[in-house]
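Batch 3, record 17
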Amino acid sequence: MSALRIANGKVLDPANGEVGVERDVIVVDGKIADAGSAPASVETIDAKGGIVMAGGIDIHSHIAGGKSNIARLLMVEEQRAFREPQGPFCGCGGGLSTMTAHATGCRYAEMGYTAVFEPAVVAANARHMHTEMADIPFLDTGGYLVLGNDDFLLDLIASGAGQQAVNDYVAWQLNATKCMAIKIVNPGGINAFKFNARWMQLDEKNPHYEITPRTILQTLIRAVTELGLAHPIHLHGCNLGVPGNEQTTLDTIAAAEGMPLHMTHVQFHSYGTEGDRKFSSGAAKIAEAVNKNPNISIDVGQVMFGQTVTASADLMSQHRNRGIASPGRWIGMDIEMDAACGIVPFAYKDKSFVNALQWAIGLELFLLVEDPWRIFLTTDHPNGGPFTTYPHLIRLLMDRSFREEQFAKLAKSARKHSNLLEIKREYTLEEIAIVTRAAPAKILGLTDRGHLGAGAVGDVVVYREDADREAMFSRAAYVVKDGTVIVREGEIVDLVYGRTHQVTPDYDASIETKMDRWFDETIGYKAGTYKISDEEIRGGQGSVKHATVRAS
Amino acid sequence: MTEPSVSEASGGATHKDVVCPYCGLGCDDVTLEVSGTAVEAKEGVCGRAAALFRRGAEPAPSARVNGREAPLDAAIAAAAELLSHARSPVYAGLGADVDGVRQIIKLAARTGGSVDHYASTGLFRNLATSQRRGWIATTLAEVRNHCDLFVVVGPDPSEQFHRLYERVTPKTGRFLAGPRKIVFLGGAPSEEARAQLEGSTIEIVAVPEGELVEALSRLQALVSGLVPPAGGVELAPLAEALKAAKYAVLAWNAGGLGADGDLVIERAVAVVETLNVETRAACLPLAGRDNLIGANQTFLWNVGFPLRTGFRGGIADHDQAAYAGASALKSADILVWVSAFRPERPPASDAQIIALAHPATEFEREPEVFIPVGQPGLDHAGLAFRTDVVVSVPLKRYRDAGLISVAEAVRRISEGRS
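Prediction for the assembled complex:
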């Protein structure tokens, strides 16, 4: 039996209603245990003066896969500028917005994160995604499978095959790709771009299948609900980045018709067309709609100033954005009757009207959405900025005077267009614990994560109290992963690997022959080759399979 | 080991739907007959792969140190000893699965030295454009179903990618209204390619030797609506066809292009870029034998750089010229030669050689250490990437010839060093 006592800290565990409770946290054999159950001799960490929280959970961060490798390829200057020196626990990687696998695990762990989820697994690339994620140390991972532009699904919907057939297909794909949730990226739009459509509105028909994004969205919302997946549809909506898309976003919220829906990087979908530059903040309207619709959750996709690279499955949007690539190069790919990707390097500048307003819109969303359990802290890494900017973002949320200082640096034209100064709210530590841990665990259905109650996994973080919240959250004093101390005084001291979360909903076996035929005739290789086996996930060790309603 | 689909009375087994790892097309309809350690490929396989899959019943050769047979442990120890004195090692060949490459990265990071794949010339011709300017590319299934006009730029790639047309441009495709049109620009199809293309319309646009770059520049001007200077190859009909196509694809085998390959690719990419303003088009840049693409991908996610990366003092840097296998080898004291997919010979050099190589490799000069390794997809399971970069294919184990994997050999050498 291995045991660890984290003593004398103030426990901040919103999921269990504990706010600054002074108590010891005991981890026995990798799990949180009752205070009384610690053996006599136990390794003790002195957390006096520290805040003790569960390990951080990032619900949306592009950490792996083909698009990340393309980004690394395009950003070789960044790779040269940020090298990770070889050390006892360090690899030989580097990068910031294009961080390599080992460095990703290290930088997240140092900030106190122990689980990070890849939100855009293109099915054809799932095997690569899992292989790469297995090289990321410290973190639990899992993938959201991108559906909604795949020809098989659009054909099912267009041909009126019915909800049951869709459910079987979605379940088959989740099993084949070993993913944990369903993501939709620009529903039907990526597919439409392959048929040369350049725009896709919520009620516009796909040029080939003649079905609308609304239909695709509603069908997949129903599928995940009926399969009983914990996480709702994770939606990157139509018209990303387009001025005036606030209306699309409001219409999309309405289209959910009260069913659970998670809308991602909503900052990029909260733009109005007011003002002399025809670009304005829609944050107030969107926040109001989120506040009124308890079925909706969002993550923000905050923009942070500096060089980054945008990587998305939404080639339709990225092709529109190619002209603003900085440096001036970009890569797009159509992918396997499945989806696509577009990688466009970009530098957000505080003196740019548009970028400065994007920054303000993100913060307005954070501050105007009232329920911290339905909003999650993200920069859509690396699209709004690298995840290493989270401590700075936390300070912006918690420290109004700091926020106002930063606001004063913005392009004057943007300041005139934002109401940010009128918002007095400051996030409390408890709210930070909610948006970075408790709420992500809840929306993902990870019942044994994001809290410090008995039975939870032993992912525990100690932060030293510091009025400078950016400093406080940049380097945790201690990080414990599954009961092992991995960070001590901000330094990595051990190397462990996390687990891969997935769901395995049941499906009607008759779909197998249909998929075999689809792969033989259309895709051009075998469905049997496409399916990922259990042995391929972390060598057959380290999967966590979550229960669904339709379980096998 | 996977369950054989048909067992034979002879004690042999027939395995269906075997994935072929050699050229990068990732065909997975090969039938293998395995009897003891003997292997024969049957249906599905192309001529080249059949030869590469074939194995005799003889036992695998022993490891050797300085030409003398040695136990595996002794060979591992000898390799570790050599590397512990290495000043400037070069890791080359790199014919290995993803796990093998992962272990080579770890070892190279500790010993220092550079890493390249023996077939990377074409990959770097492609990267010269994709890295500096970018492109719009596509994958095999997109071509198969969307592409109504397939333009082969330069020599026929099916020389290297044997079943290319059968796999990628078959007679029918989901969104094709009529027969697919295949244009060979500056090359011509082999007889076998013609057979694979039956049902498609074939057109050949001859380009005089050395004038492909010029032809593509003219094509680019034409699709942009400009009028190129008079003379040269007649390209207006092709330009019109490209503009009228629903989904045109320009494909090339980068390794098969000439010395001006970089420029050919850059011009072809520009044509696709222009077409995409009004219609849809994409590139299919082919490169990728012996898991070249997988090695490059593994480098990108672990190191951040593509192949041709050097390690010094634990820090990696990338230099396409200096760390290319051939140039790095000029100043190398030790060559670690890795070739698990085929008996590829190490290049001539003055360096001492540690060969983690196919058992049938015939060396021009006996390596200081020879460790025969198994082939991913025959002797052990593994992972390899397809030429289109997106799809990777699982390789399975079909026999036990007592051969160690590259990953295992490198891991043990690494442990022996410390």
